[in-house]
Amino acid sequence: MMIRVWLFLLALTGVEVLLAYLHTPPIVMLAALMGLSLLKAAYIIAYFMHMKFERRSLRFSLFPILVLCILALLMLLPDAARAQCVMCKRTAEAQNAEQARRMNRGILVLAIPPVLIVGAILARAKHQSIKSSLAS
Amino acid sequence: MEAVASSSPFGIGSKKFGMWLFIVSDALTFSTLLICYTYARISNPNWPAPFAFSPSIIFSTVMTLVLLTSSLTMVMAVHDERRTARWILATMLCGATFVGLHLTEWRHLMAAGITPASNPWGVPLFGAAFFGITGLHMLHVTIGVVYLGIIAAGRYSREDVEVAGLYWHFVDLVWMFVFPLIYLMSVKP
After folding, report:
1. Nearest to A49 among B39, B169, B183 (CB)
2. Residues of A in contact with B76 (CB under 8 A)
């Protein structure tokens, strides 16, 4: 059981490294990496740290406050990101329309593999959890 | 012990609950550091991306595998009651390997000219963020190795082993965020 969790975590790490190897565009990369890392953290907490087998009251007293604090820390992130976006916009505007169109298409094409990978992993995780809840 | 556990509203002993509270607060420490790093990075367009896929990323991937494996041996230490000390020693060995590899990585980067206050590529803050975050994590791993050593050497209860395990898995969990945000997001283009 624990060995299967370990292998799953290794596989997710492999996917992350693969994304870096493919030089995925930063925004897609960040979203995919954070999704995968949160999934890994959830598995570590649930199985290695046994949280899945603890009382619900423990879960409810530890995690909501943590999640809320982290969300509060993220509150000003769009403001920091705006400085960067202005630069991107100017660079894109400086190019001609045909190039901009190609760049957009390129971004879309590059976004497909990581979205599919993350989607497949989430679907599989969901499938597993349904299966295990039916089994128990 | 049974009486203590059943009188707790959480169904766990106070040591374990104390460790969980520490983990939640330490999780906030690391979130704050990583989020500040993200802020600094997003608002500086010339943030350096110095890690070549080979050797830096391959090196840090091996470190990640070592740390994940140490989590597995720690799980075994908690479950396998007859060979606890041996599994804890294996975990400590993995932890020590991780620190050794990380220090080697640091030495390479220092040789390439990164210091906490300057680097050859761009924003000087990069060095401070890199050494600050990875250094704090390395400190946690080092403390974890010493902690496990104390648990393995003395006569401690099953609960103490489990609580030490919680700490160790948390250190592993933090690396699962440090590794992608610091290393994988900074692959040399």
Report:
1. B169
2. 2
**Binary contact (B42, A49; C-beta < 8 A):** no
Q: What is the pLDDT of residues B146-178, one digit of tens each?
A: 999 999 998 888 999 999 999 999 999 999 999
Domain ranges for chain B: 2-186
Phi and psi (nearest 5°) for B114? -85, 125
Partnered with residue B51 across adjacent β-strands are B187
Q: For B53, name the nearest residue in chain A, comparing CA atoms only.
A: A21
Q: Closest-CA residue in chain B for A20?
A: B184
Q: What span, in angstroms and rounded, lies between the C-alpha atoms of B61 and B180?
A: 10
Question: What six digits make up the tokens of B168?
Answer: 């160790």
* DSSP codes joined into one string, B52-74: -IIIIIHHHHHHHHHHHHHHHHH
- Check: CATH 3.40.50.150 for B2-186? no
Q: Which residues pair with A67 in a beta bridge?
A: none
Q: Tell me, what's the ipTM?
A: 0.89
For residue A60, count CB atoms less than 10 angstroms from its CB and return exposed for 0-12, middle for 13-18, buried for 19 or more.
exposed
Q: Is the peptide bond before B55 cis (omega within 30 degrees of 0)?
A: yes
Q: Is the pTM of this model over 0.90?
A: no
Contact B164, B18 (CB under 8 A): no
